[in-house]
Every structure is written in C-alpha cells, then in structure tokens.
Amino acid sequence: MRLKIIYIGILIAIISTLPAEFDIGGYYKNFFMLYDMPEYMSFQNQFSGTMTNTFRFEFTYSPEDFTSFNLAYNISASVIEPSLAGEGLGFGTPTQNKYRFNDIAPKIYSLDKDSAGILQVAQNLDRAYFRVSAKFLDAYIGRQVVAWGSGRMVNPSNVISPFSYDELDKEEYIGVDAVRVRIPVGALSEIDMGYIAGERFRMNNNAFFINTRLYLLQTDVT
Which class for 141: exposed (0-12), middle (13-18), buried (19 or more C-beta within 10 A)? Predict the structure, then answer.
C-alpha cells in the first residue's frame, strides 16, 4: 500500500512539471455525533458519541482543453465508543462502494481500547478518471461519480452510489469504476449511458445503465 502511495506521488510530481494546467486542492472537516440511547438498549451511559476528522486531497491535470485527469484521495481518523461499534453505529462516513473491480485496503490502522474507545484510520481512493470531450460526446473512464438527482436524504433515482440513512458525511458521492458516455441531443437534453465494473469484472457483479434527460414543454423529463 505504501508503494502505491509513493507511485501516485511520483506521478503527480512528474505531471506537475509538464506544460499544462493543473490544480491541487482539498479540504479538512471535523464532525461530532452524540447519541441519546433508548432505555431498551443496555448501554452503560445514556449518551454516547463519536468524532471524525477527514482530509480530502484533489488533483486535476489538463494537458489540453478537451481532456483531463482527475484524482481524489480521502483519509479519515475516527474515534468511537466500543458499545456503538457493536451495534453497527458510529463513524457516519460513506462506506466503500461495491462497484469497484479492485481497491486499496480501506483500513490503515485500528486500535481497540475498551475504556477509551476505538480509533480507526481509513482511506479511500475516491476519484481516478480520465475525461475526453468532443462536440458530440463527453467520455469518462476510471473511478468517478455516477449519480442522478439532487436529493441527499431520499433519492430514488440514485441506485449506484446511494447514501444510507445513518451517514452524516454526504458531501461527496462514493466513486465507482466505470466507462461513461454522455451525448447531447439538444440544448438541455442528453443521453447518459455506460458500464460499471464490479469486483474482479465478474459479470454478475457488473452493471450497465442508460439514462435520458429530455427538455419538453419547458419541463425536464428523465
């Protein structure tokens, strides 16, 4: 795993010296969750909590206007009471997506102390895709977002990267490994289709999709 990170760092360093546009950014955020546990659950304390710190690194390399390479990597450290972990509660961050043919190990470090709580450090290579744009289509190849609709709590159309109801961190959709093509068919209309790779490219783990968005009678129809 360390070698993979070193290789990525070397690749970014080489790319940054090439005559092209590139952008490096990211963000840090911290959130705390407090649970008021119901009486029927046998917890020593009525109130239990978790704390999560997340850093996201983002990199974009554009050698030409019509193409770019995009990368995003998350690392997060969470502290959770052992009783919450036993109930399947706690970290509040998006879980790994099943639509990835292969992935880096999500857990970097884990320390379990019954008295102080569980410390977990996790990582997620969330974006790693190429974009190619032309007059008649946009193509995306690699780990990317495949999602429709704008709802975060309830979104029936988002079946590829849905958020569960107990996830607090809903700023970024989880990336999936896909080949996606978007074809414009009008000023506000398009055909969106593609292939999504599951574990080891096995056919029963893969998915295919096609989504159309049409603008008819001043109304969006999907």
Answer: middle
